[in-house]
Design a protein that fits this description.
Blueprint (H helix, E strand, L loop, with lengths): L13 H14 L4 H6 L3 H8 L1 H12 L1 H14 L3 H13 L11 H16 L5 H10 L2 H23 L15
Amino acid sequence: MAYISQIEYEKASDEVKHQIDRQISENGRITNMKLTLLHSLPSYHALMEWYPLEKTIEQFLGERAVNFFCYAISTENDCLICSVFFRKILKDLNIDFNTFQFTEEEDILIRYGRAIVNDANHVPEEVFDELKKHWNEEQIVAITAFATIMIATNLINKILQVDLDDYLKAYTKD
């Protein structure tokens, strides 16, 4: 059971209603996490920076690699909502993460995401050496910043025990 309620549209301020309407217009729905975050517009806006940063790193990583990166972070962080969200994306692409043959770049991203979650103070130097073989410092900073927003999203969902969205329930593990 969620610790924080979801914003009710009828009781929301005009700015919150605008954000809800925008999400539904752009995505066809608004997630439980976003309805929870909308209790605090600055918090909502901070975590919505995930989207422009996602577009930035997709330009040099590709969408599939970004999805693998997010899934690895979310599963390592044990975030039900985010891991199921990315499991849905992968299943819809007919990709089994556990048996997929990743490219070298995808593999290092997955290892980097997991290392950040496991111990951000001690990401192995060899991981950075491998990152630098594929991406420049600006790109590595963008990848890292994106990972931290992904982790923040994981933590919001876990700490506040945001309810799993109904449309994701079919994608939970058996």
